[in-house]
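We were asked to recover a plausible sequence for a given structure. The inputs and outputs are reproduced exactly as logged, with field labels preserved.

PROBLEM: sequence recovery
POSITIONS: 162
GIVEN STRUCTURE:
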């Protein structure tokens, strides 16, 4: 293999590896459905979890979203980042602690226009003790959590205390 061919192959492999690493970390079921099939837009418009219809769906950042109505699908398709759950639909409190956890759609909140979900009532209580601080930590730790595929990260390393 010529030197140029080797360099091109190496570059192509590096680009492929970077693309694989850039894949979003999302909390989906075995069929790729996010939010347990609940309508992401309904959290904002109906202020409660509303089950979506599999026949009315969209794909966004590695997940399939179901909607209760064509209007909700249209709103989502126009501004998916506005409606998509934060932190890949993993528990926001867990992310603020450097890892992922499953969610319950009944534990949702909307903070500064962002859909956040928690694991359970205990996570809701702990999150609520310092919403701004917990949200800032979750935002800070999320890239590292993604890089570690949702597994616990060394928070001291992220915080510069290593």
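RECOVERED SEQUENCE:
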């Amino acid at each position: 293999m010529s030197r140029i061919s080797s360099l091109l192959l190496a570059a192509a492999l590096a680009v492929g590896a970077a693309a694989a690493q850039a894949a979003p970390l999302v909390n989906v079921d075995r069929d790729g459905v996010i939010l347990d099939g609940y309508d992401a837009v309904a959290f904002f418009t109906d202020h409660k979890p509303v089950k979506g219809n599999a026949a009315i769906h969209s794909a966004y950042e590695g997940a399939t979203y179901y909607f209760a109505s064509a209007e909700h699908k249209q709103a989502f398709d126009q501004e998916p980042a506005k409606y998509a759950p934060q932190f890949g639909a993993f528990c926001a409190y867990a992310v603020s602690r450097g890892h992922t956890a499953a969610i319950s759609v009944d534990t949702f909140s909307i903070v500064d226009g962002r859909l956040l979900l928690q694991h359970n009532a205990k996570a809701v209580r702990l999150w609520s003790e310092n919403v701004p601080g917990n949200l800032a930590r979750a935002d800070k730790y999320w890239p590292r959590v993604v890089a570690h595929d949702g597994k616990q990260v060394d928070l001291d390393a992220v915080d510069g205390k290593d």
